[in-house]
UniProtKB/TrEMBL annotation:
Subcellular location(s) of the protein: Cell membrane
Keyword terms: ATP-binding, Cell membrane, Membrane, Nucleotide-binding, Transmembrane, Transmembrane helix, Transport
Protein name: Peptidase domain-containing ABC transporter
Domain ABC transporter: 497-726
CDD domains membership: ABC_6TM_CyaB_HlyB_like
The keyword Cell membrane is assigned to this record: yes
GO MF term set: ABC-type transporter activity; ATP binding; ATP hydrolysis activity; ATPase-coupled lipid transmembrane transporter activity
Spans traversing the lipid bilayer: 184-206, 218-238, 291-316, 322-342
Native organism: Solimonas marina
Cited InterPro entries: AAA+_ATPase, ABC1_TM_dom, ABC1_TM_sf, ABC_transporter-like_ATP-bd, ABC_transporter-like_CS, P-loop_NTPase, Type_1_exporter
Annotated membrane topology: Multi-pass membrane protein
Predominant location: membrane
Domain ABC transmembrane type-1: 184-464
Length: 728
């Protein structure tokens, strides 16, 4: 289903958060789809607009399209009710969290369209259970925005039917802009007609004007050529503008799809690939855009017109046409012959570039270790070797392209000389082949050979784009984690964790880390998990987050196997305070707000007060607007850990996991940190992973993991109530 053209600003017009949730919840209720507002807003954070609404409906299994509300008419036959309408009217009294939505666009009001007859329309609006009935005319006056048409999708699994990512992915995206491609095709037709007329005008000047000395005819022909040149330049500019504009749209779609897919891949994907390699693959989006918006599309559009020029040339002289076609055929054969070499050289160049970038990314992120161990000379030498290999592969690729271009250009020159020699012979025979025809034929041959020669250079760009597509395919075709807006359990989350007969190993080549592990974390209790290094404490935390799946057994959250839960639903219940707190470039407020984009400033302050970091932040010159670097420069280990606690609390989790959170703290700071953890008792389930339990921590149970026997998990009481020792 397709709609009409819509205003460019319609996708940017804000929607109040409460209206956004109401609209999605209403459709889910009508179609009997389980709905959870927390999952919806967690996966689709503010600001909200039409594009976000369409994305949310798509995630819930709806197909959507848009239609404009046109003044003077309301075509109910085009609207499968129910539908959601967005107006240009400014919503009042529905602020939600819109104070955080920094936009100058007005807020679009929403309405749920339910039914319509020939004259009237029935609809609902947010915060009202009473339907409203208005005439079509009154509707078009009150609502002048976009109608979002929605219907439940068929019960098909999009992931299972989705084909592998490749160049075919671009076909449906390109077909979305049929009107633009029609305009581009018309511009190409005009350009080629002008290209056909120019040699003919030149022939007229040589054979008629010069011979008969008709100045008036010369003025007319030259004026026509000037107009043709100007008009051709305008059409060429317009065609390239449309191509570039469409290419940017495709770039935006592809870039967002790639990042969305990358963010939904499991942790094992990132653990098995260097960061620099992933960054290099993401740069492939730019390579593909440059290929699409470059000469590729224009050459493809120009190729069909080559047959027109070929037919005209054949009408002039079949002998000269045979020369041109033979030389161009040789160039095409050479192009096919070097195709495997180009692919091999470009692939090697990409791999060397990825290694170089991965090396820089890895060691720059660990610069503190580099400097402390005085690794600079070694790294300089190693990077020099990588850079030399990359430059050598690039030089080899460019030399191959250079050799190919020289041969192709030499053959083109041979074609020109051959046409000149044979053409001059035909002219001297005085069999009707004139000098003007020879010059025109040379111009036609140039119009025929230039696209073919441009294909030579385009072939290298195509190979680069092909490699980029295949590298991106490694991301797009990789199986992702399950994400869903449909909850798998009721909204009464307790934070009860059961680990039942869990066995785990990283792969078939690794030994079992656990065998038949049985644990239970009771709601509202603090459970301490102790053990030596290598006993699997942090791995257990990753299992709880769904980063790994148990090899055997199951883990249940509130009675539901986490295998049956989507990743976003599972992690929405968890707040993690890791051993090394990662802060991102930006202010303290921005780092905290990332955990919950819906949180107000008061909620951020409240979380910091609970984490006992608010007083410190207030003492900073810029308070919450203080800028911190990627590694939290200027903050102590304890301060960063408390920021991590505040960030975890902003998620409002039912379970808090502290993974070696006190390992880098001194004793006094660790004791104070433990008192902060005690304040969460009875409100959230807490797992405190540590080597040494702080004396001030008021734990309810202690589990000790040992490595006495990795083949069997044995639960024994050590004589202290509430403490269980697990031998692994």
């Amino acid at each position: 289903m397709t709609g009409g053209r819509e205003s460019p600003s319609s996708h940017r017009r804000r929607i109040a958060e409460r209206d956004f949730v109401w609209a999605v919840a209403s459709l889910c209720n009508l179609f009997r789809i389980p709905f959870d507002a927390a999952l919806l807003t967690g996966q689709h954070p503010p600001p909200y607009d039409q594009a976000m609404l369409l994305a949310a409906l798509h995630d819930l299994g709806f197909k959507t399209a848009t239609l404009p509300v046109r003044a003077g008419g309301f075509d109910k036959t085009r609207i499968p009710f129910p539908a959601i309408a967005i107006s240009r009217a400014e919503a009042s009294g529905r602020s939600g969290n819109d104070s955080d939505q920094r936009s100058v666009e007005p807020i679009g009001a929403l309405a749920l369209l339910v039914k319509s007859d020939e004259q009237r329309l029935l609809f609902f609006i947010p915060e009202s259970d009473t339907p409203q009935i208005v005439s079509h005319q009154e509707w078009t006056e009150r609502f002048e925005g976009i109608i979002v048409i929605s219907r439940a999708e068929e019960t098909d699994d999009e992931e299972s039917t989705q084909s592998n990512f490749g160049f075919r992915w671009f076909i449906p995206e390109l077909l979305k802009y049929r009107a633009i491609w029609r305009d581009v095709l018309i511009a190409s037709l005009v350009i080629q007609i002008i290209g056909l007329a120019t040699p003919l005008c030149t022939q007229v000047v040589i054979d008629k004007v010069v011979v008969h000395q008709t100045r008036s005819t010369l003025d007319v022909v030259v004026m026509a050529l000037v107009l043709f040149t100007i008009f051709s330049g305008v059409m060429t500019w317009l065609r390239q503008y449309l191509i570039i504009h469409t290419g940017n749209r495709l770039d935006a779609v592809l870039g967002s799809r790639v990042l969305s897919r990358l963010l939904r891949l499991p942790m094992t994907y990132f653990e098995n690939r260097p960061t620099g390699t992933l960054v290099a693959r993401l740069h492939g989006v730019e390579t593909i855009r440059e290929f699409i918006t470059g000469a590729a599309v224009s050459i493809v559009l120009d190729l069909p017109f080559l047959f027109v020029f070929l037919a005209v040339m054949f009408a002039y002289s079949w002998q000269l046409t045979l020369i041109a076609v033979s030389i161009l055929a040789i160039i095409a054969l050479i192009s096919l012959a070097v195709r495997p070499l180009f692919r091999e050289h470009l692939n090697r160049q990409f791999l060397q570039g990825a290694k170089s970038q991965s090396f820089l990314t890895e060691y720059i992120s660990g610069m503190e270790t580099v400097k402390s161990l005085q690794m600079e000379p070694t790294l300089e030498r190693r990077y020099g070797d990588l850079l030399a290999a990359y430059l050598a592969s690039g030089f080899s690729t460019r030399q191959l392209a250079n050799t190919y271009n020289v041969i192709a250009n030499a053959l083109e020159q041979t074609m020109t000389l051959g046409i000149l020699f044979i053409g001059a012979t035909l002219v001297m025979r005085n069999d009707g082949f004139t000098v003007g025809m020879l010059v025109a034929f040379q111009m036609f041959a140039g119009r025929l050979s230039q696209p073919v020669l441009r294909l030579v250079g385009l072939w290298q760009e195509f190979q680069q784009a092909n490699i980029a597509v295949r590298r991106l395919g490694d991301i797009m075709n990789a199986p992702g984690e399950p994400y869903s807006l449909t909850p798998s359990r009721d909204g009464n989350a307790k934070g009860h964790i059961e680990i039942l007969d869990v066995s785990f190993r990283y792969s078939t080549h690794h030994p079992f880390l656990y065998r038949n592990l049985n644990l239970e974390l009771l709601p509202g209790k603090i459970t301490v998990l102790k053990g030596p290094s290598g006993s699997g404490k942090s791995t257990l935390a990753k299992l709880l987050q769904g980063f790994y799946q148990p090899t055997e057994g199951s883990i249940k959250l509130d009675g539901v196997d986490i295998r049956h839960m989507s990743a976003n639903e599972l992690r929405a219940s968890l707040g993690i305070v890791p051993q090394e707190t990662t802060l991102f470039s930006g202010t303290i407020y921005e780092n905290l707000h990332l955990a919950n984009p819906h949180a107000t400033f008061q909620e951020v302050v409240k979380a910091c007060e609970l984490a006992e970091i608010h007083d410190f932040i207030k003492q900073l010159p810029k308070g919450y607007q203080t800028t911190v670097g990627e590694h939290g420069v200027g903050l102590s280990g304890g301060q960063k850990q408390r920021l991590a606690i505040a960030r975890a609390l902003l998620k409002k989790p039912r379970i808090l996991i502290f993974d070696e959170a006190t390992s880098n703290l001194d004793q006094a700071t660790a004791e104070a940190f433990a008192k902060t953890v005690n304040s969460f008792k009875s409100t959230v389930t807490t797992m405190f992973i540590t080597h040494a339990e702080p004396a001030t921590l008021d734990s309810d149970a202690m589990i000790v993991l040992t490595t006495a026997n990795r083949q069997q998990s044995i639960a024994t009481r050590d004589g202290n109530e509430g403490q269980t020792e697990m031998e692994l």
